[in-house]
Amino acid sequence: MTSTEFAHPSAPREELLQSARLDAGFSNFINGQAVSPGGRLHVVNPATGEIIASVPDAGQEALDQAVQAARDAFPAWAATPWAERRKVLELFLKRMEEHQQELVALLTAETGRPLATSAWELGGAIHAFGPTLLGLELPQEHVDSPSRGKVIKRHVPLGVVCAISPWNVPVLLSCVKVLSALLTGNTIVLKPSPFAPLTVLRVMALANDLLPPGVLNVITGGDDLGPLMTAHPGFDKVTFTGSTQTGKRVLSSAAPTLKRVTLELGGNDPAIVLPDADPQAIAEPLFWSMFMLNGHACISLKRLYVHESIYPAVTQALQAYAAQIKTGDGFDPHSALGPVQNRMQFERILETWSAIQASRTPVLYQGQAPEQGYFFPVTLLDNPQEDAAFVSKEVFGPIRAIMKYTDLDDAIRRANDTPYGLGASVWGQDAEQLRAVADRLNAGTVWINQHANLSIDLPFGGHKESGVGVEFGVEGLKSYCNVRVITAI
Fold it and tell me: Is 61 a catalytic residue?
């Protein structure tokens, strides 16, 4: 199934909602059993503001049970051959494919996003990221050492993984963490975001009877559960995707037990448009680089630097393209962008907009958005002051800043003048100059004439305060392992 099958759905909204099976209930999974510990947390459709379901609000007792189940299951799972682990996980992806239409509808119900975007995320997990990741290997290496003779280097699993996934790409990023941990022989306790837990719970339920009890455990909870997990002495590794502020607390919490930590954190990605760029050709990819997932992407383009000679042409082309894009309920076949995903983030965006208005920053363009639900229109700012918080800090929503530059060296300095370093890009036609600029941008990934285009076979991580370690690729798999060196005397 491809995303285009949902671009203009023929089924009415109520029929699509029915296919999401919201009335089926949502449980946690501990030691192979469906359980409902603690109270319940409400899940809201941000397009309507309506409560659509509830999930368990797990606490310390449930966490302890999940960690113990994972520890008990670890020795046998670690001893299972790599090929057998891969085969089970391939069956898991096959089950996801069989349920894809139901999962797409469910993901749209809890995120409000367009069906095509939900289909893109599920399709990415099932057909692209998942299979590619499962095709990676960490072979045993044999080395001749002058001092030690024959040496064997192996990558062995760490143990029990604590995985905390975000609300912006909940299914894809949860699957990457789960597949990476389990393929390398670890067991795992996964906590999805309380703002978007439903599809993750439904997806992970599909793997429950494929895996030995305790190998995959999934618990949901509110703000208190995350810190309990990251501080828990029963975990050997924490993998967290979220904000830089929270990432710092995760790192501090993990330090007393020296857990291995991978943090994929925030970004304030810059892009530089060179004077020879074609404004009409780059308008569409620039727009989606900025507003993919309604601006809810750590790697989306947030600060656009345009040479003054083509600033009018680029901004006019962007405005013309933006005017074609409808923001609305994800079940509306004409919607290309959805709401801000949750009330907390929506209130932050409203605070940001108030600050913009108070600063009298010129607005190049602002679209339309429904009044019901957590909607905010696409907004482009015209050459704002770069020391303003709504430029210097990450804006996780549909507001983006466009700035002029005259001197290229100055533009590169301004682009790098940030505590973040997740992604960056440069746009133009001179291949030599593009490569030269790309080499000077301080980010974990630098794109040329594109942005936010990730591949699971390549390592992805941030410089500076955008993260610790990497996800994806062979390097990402190695982060779930210790190196064991066996020498012969």
Answer: no
